[in-house]
């Protein structure tokens, strides 16, 4: 935010209402002129109340891992941990944890056993206490520790004060990359870690045989700790929300969302927020406002009305989400994950593929039959380690054969291998149950749901608690980047801006030359240059120049993701000019494709067929978006018909307030069009009526009427009024004048609805959206020409939009009924 806006907000907050003009303009740009004018009086800060803590990350509650692990074994694990900074690394203390507590920490809070051993003792103790606190809270039905508490407990990792091999990513950063907790990755992670633990246990057995009791105990304890990591992922396998291939779910979400669902989600969320203002404003006050800059927070609290302020925050959150396809893909995965965890799914194990049970998920492990089955699997897993450490396993050629041992003693055989997803269709967990058509049917059901209980709205409200941490993280990254790139930015500006070289601002920077210079530069340098040129309003010019140097989609996809987002953001701010719109669309498509390619690469090589089909569809959607404006524009222009009814306008204008009539006159630019209605308007007034008109209107008529009788009449009336002392004070009301003019001068599209039949949903929506005057008639005619069966086959996003555009009750109800039936079908197909 520019510095002047901060000064303006600070002055207003201090009660000063006389501001430097530059500061006032900065705040006006932020929230609008009318809002600033209304804010120049003192505003009272409302009290902030505590928020109920919630778990919003995709995982079992840590205490559920603890419950399962502790039920499997009563053994404990003692770690010799560094006492933390500023102490030397050789200053350590013993920390003893239950097997279940280590289970909980490994995977979600530490990437593995090796990291936990390198962790500072105070951090481990804080996290273990949070696990116990959560366990006690769940038992009482009380609020569990907030996400921010887990993040705070790991915040020391950002300082860099960690020993080699220690964790460097915080809780939320780890949570961003949790694909390993989903099928089939969790099976691979368990198998690798369990085999490694078995190898260590066999080492303990060998040391016992050599008479090294101390070494055998140390190796046995190490094996148990390594297996605690493996068992975390075995536990995840029993959660309904983890039965799916997350990468496939995310790909299907990208395809679903790229079909125009964003407008549906936004409309439903905004509608829900309007009916839930007290709760969502409380969340914003607690979790969002403290992280914003002074002018932003002040505007939301004191300048904008409550409903508008809430709408702005939601729009910002959704805009950021829409511009980050990787986060958007995670949103779909979260919705699917939560749906399965809450509703459960019937599953079958490899050990007994005929006897199914219903498993649930995070915070619901006690439901269904999974808890006991998971504990049995965990007991087998721990037993494998103890058996190998105490008695060894069968050998082949004189060496222990772990693979042969696991064929007979693999705990994973007790985990779900098949699931009825959707109901009645038994498929193997992982990629097979992650069928894109099922995913997209389920997402339609969840995203189109309305009201404050809808999953999407609930997810947004819950995730507001993470906003402050996300903003703080982004600010740290930005500050670090700017500091690191400052000298390089200055060097380039001295070369390509004469004013900067002379000690002034770089307002004359040669953006074309900068774009050439940045082509081979690091993404951080390019982003920092965009930041530096933002105050000069040249960041959008530079962004467009950089984008233009990569004319192909492949060229844009090859760019760094953060740079692509920075380019889009620079051009999206303020008014979009020239080729910026098409460049933004190209960049957004490139971001989607780049994300999609990364997700395909995460898939097992033998399971990429369906994923590649989705990637092909994403390319096709990008091609369609590139043509969308031209296709819709051609249809609208080809059916346009100009309509002008000057005599009807003249009749309607008589008796209207002078300001409104003046507004009509001002809005008529071409003299011949103006004369066509102004002459009959003037002629219909008798001399007495004319004399009673507002002097400002007399003056305008005397000026704008064409030469002739009416002009002479009004010039004489104006002269008489002036001689009598009349004073001109009335000014034109442009808004009301334009509205009156547009009733009788407009462009309609009588054949547009017919031409839209059979067009892609996005083209239909775009064409109706720009139809203008007869938008509601076109929408009604479009629906009217379709049979009920044809309506039912329309894209749900288009069906969602149509009822709000149609005045005709019959056609509006038909469109709404078609949407309801479409969503009911999706719900039936996707149900578990």
The parts where pLDDT drops under 50 for at least 5 residues are: 1-58
Strand order of the largest sheet: 4-3-7-8
Q: Which structural class is indicated by helix and strand composition?
A: mainly alpha
The tally of beta strands, per DSSP, is 10
Shape: elongated
Quaternary state of this entry equals single chain
- Percent helix: 55-70%
Distance between the termini: 48 Å
> Which sheet architecture does the biggest sheet show?
4 strands, antiparallel
> How many distinct helices?
43
Describe, in plain words, how this protein is organized in 3D.
The strands form four sheets. Strands 4-3-7-8 form a four-stranded antiparallel β-sheet. It has a two-stranded antiparallel ribbon with strand order 1-2. 44% of the residues are buried. Helix 1 (3-13) packs across helix 15 (294-303) and helix 32 crosses helix 37. The protein is mostly helical and 832 residues long. Strand 7 and strand 8 (426-428) form a beta hairpin. The chain starts with a helix and ends with a helix. It contains 43 helices and ten strands.
List keywords for this structure.
disordered N terminus; 43 helices; two-stranded antiparallel sheet; 832 residues; mainly alpha; 4-stranded antiparallel beta sheet
Short description:
This protein is mainly alpha-helical and 832 residues long. It is built from 43 helices and 10 strands.
Topology readout:
Layout: H1 3-13, H2 21-31, H3 33-39, H4 62-72, E1 76-82, E2 92-98, H5 99-105, H6 113-117, H7 121-140, H8 147-153, H9 171-175, H10 185-209, H11 213-236, H12 246-257, H13 262-274, H14 277-287, H15 294-303, H16 306-322, H17 325-343, E3 345-349, E4 357-359, H18 370-391, E5 395-396, E6 399-400, H19 402-409, E7 416-420, E8 426-428, H20 436-447, H21 455-463, H22 467-496, H23 498-501, H24 511-518, H25 523-533, H26 539-548, H27 553-557, H28 561-572, H29 580-602, H30 609-638, E9 641-644, H31 646-653, H32 658-667, H33 671-683, H34 687-691, H35 695-704, H36 709-723, H37 734-744, E10 745-748, H38 752-756, H39 761-770, H40 775-784, H41 788-792, H42 796-801, H43 809-830
Antiparallel strand pairs: 1-2, 3-4, 3-7, 5-6, 7-8, 9-10
């Amino acid at each position: 935010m520019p510095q002047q806006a901060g000064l303006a907000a600070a002055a207003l907050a201090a009660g000063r209402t006389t501001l430097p003009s530059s500061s006032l303009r900065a705040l006006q740009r932020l929230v609008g002129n009318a809002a600033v004018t209304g804010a120049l009086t003192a505003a009272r800060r409302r009290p902030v109340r505590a928020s109920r803590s919630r778990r919003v990350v995709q995982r079992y509650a840590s205490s559920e891992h603890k419950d399962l692990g502790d039920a499997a074994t009563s053994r404990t694990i003692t770690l010799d941990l560094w006492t933390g900074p500023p102490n030397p690394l050789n200053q350590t203390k013993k920390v003893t944890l239950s097997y279940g507590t280590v289970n909980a920490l490994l995977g979600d809070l530490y990437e593995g056993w090796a990291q936990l051993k390198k962790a500072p003792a105070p951090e481990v103790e804080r996290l273990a206490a949070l696990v116990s606190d959560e366990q006690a809270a769940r038992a009482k039905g009380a609020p569990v520790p907030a996400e921010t508490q887990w993040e705070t407990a790991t915040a020391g990792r950002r300082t860099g004060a960690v020993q080699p091999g220690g964790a460097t990513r915080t809780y939320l950063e780890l949570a961003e990359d949790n694909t390993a907790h989903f099928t089939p990755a969790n099976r691979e992670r368990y198998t690798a870690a369990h085999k490694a633990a078995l190898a260590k246990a066999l080492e303990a057995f060998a040391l016992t045989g050599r008479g090294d009791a101390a070494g055998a105990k140390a190796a046995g304890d190490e094996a148990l700790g390594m297996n605690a990591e493996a068992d975390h992922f075995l536990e995840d396998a029993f959660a309904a929300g983890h039965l799916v291939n997350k990468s496939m779910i995310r790909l299907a979400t990208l395809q679903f969302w790229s079909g125009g669902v964003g407008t549906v989600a936004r409309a439903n969320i905004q509608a829900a927020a309007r009916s839930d203002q007290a709760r969502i404003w409380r969340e914003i006050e607690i979790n969002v406002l403290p992280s914003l800059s002074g002018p932003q927070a002040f505007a939301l609290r004191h300048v904008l009305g409550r409903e508008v302020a809430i709408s702005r925050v939601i729009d910002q959150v959704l805009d950021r989400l829409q511009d980050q396809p990787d986060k958007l893909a995670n949103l779909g995965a979260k919705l699917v994950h939560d749906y399965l965890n809450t509703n459960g799914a019937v599953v079958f194990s490899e050990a007994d593929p005929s006897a199914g049970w219903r498993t649930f998920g995070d915070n619901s492990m006690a439901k269904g039959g999974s808890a006991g089955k998971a504990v049995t699997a965990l007991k087998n897993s721990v037993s494998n380690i103890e058996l190998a450490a105490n008695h060894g396993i069968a050998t082949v050629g004189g060496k222990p054969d772990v693979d042969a041992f696991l064929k007979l003693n693999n705990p994973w055989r007790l985990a779900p291998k098949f699931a009825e997803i959707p109901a009645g269709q038994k498929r193997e967990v992982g990629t097979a149950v992650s069928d894109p058509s099922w995913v997209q049917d389920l997402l339609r059901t969840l995203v189109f749901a309305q009201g404050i209980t809808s999953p999407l709205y609930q997810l947004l409200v819950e995730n507001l608690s993470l906003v402050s941490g996300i903003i703080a993280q982004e600010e740290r990254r930005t500050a670090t980047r700017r500091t690191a790139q400052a000298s390089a930015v200055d060097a380039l500006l001295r070369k390509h801006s004469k004013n900067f070289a002379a000690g002034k601002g770089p307002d004359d920077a040669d953006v074309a030359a900068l774009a050439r210079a940045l082509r081979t530069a690091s993404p951080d340098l390019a982003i920092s240059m965009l930041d530096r040129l933002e105050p000069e309003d040249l960041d959008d010019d530079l962004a467009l120049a950089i984008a233009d140097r990569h004319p192909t989609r492949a060229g844009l996809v090859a760019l760094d993701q953060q740079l692509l987002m920075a380019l889009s953001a620079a051009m999206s701010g303020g008014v979009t000019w020239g080729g910026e719109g098409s460049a933004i669309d190209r960049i957004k498509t490139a971001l989607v494709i780049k994300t999609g390619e990364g997700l395909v690469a995460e898939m097992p090589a033998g399971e990429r067929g369906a994923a590649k089909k989705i990637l092909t569809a994403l390319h096709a959607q990008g091609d369609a978006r590139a043509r969308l404006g031209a296709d819709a524009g051609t249809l609208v222009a080809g059916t346009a018909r100009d309509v002008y009814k000057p005599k009807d306008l003249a009749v309607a204008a008589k008796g209207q307030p002078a300001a409104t009539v003046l507004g009509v006159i001002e809005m008529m630019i071409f003299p011949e069009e103006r004369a066509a209605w102004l002459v009959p308007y003037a002629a219909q007034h008798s001399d007495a009526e004319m004399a009673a008109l507002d002097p400002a209107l007399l003056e305008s008529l005397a000026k704008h009427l064409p030469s002739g009788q009416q002009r002479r009449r009004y010039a004489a009336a104006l002269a008489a009024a002036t001689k009598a002392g009349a004073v001109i004070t009335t000014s034109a009301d442009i808004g009301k004048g334009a509205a009156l003019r547009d009733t009788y001068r407009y462009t309609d599209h009588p054949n547009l609805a017919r031409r839209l039949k059979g067009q892609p949903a996005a083209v239909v929506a775009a064409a109706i959206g720009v139809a203008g005057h007869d938008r509601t008639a076109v929408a009604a005619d479009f629906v009217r020409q379709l049979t009920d069966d044809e309506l039912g086959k329309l894209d749900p996003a288009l069906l969602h939009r149509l009822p709000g555009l149609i005045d005709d009750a019959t056609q509006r109800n038909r469109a709404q009924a078609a949407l309801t039936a479409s969503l009911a079908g999706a719900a039936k197909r996707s149900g578990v």
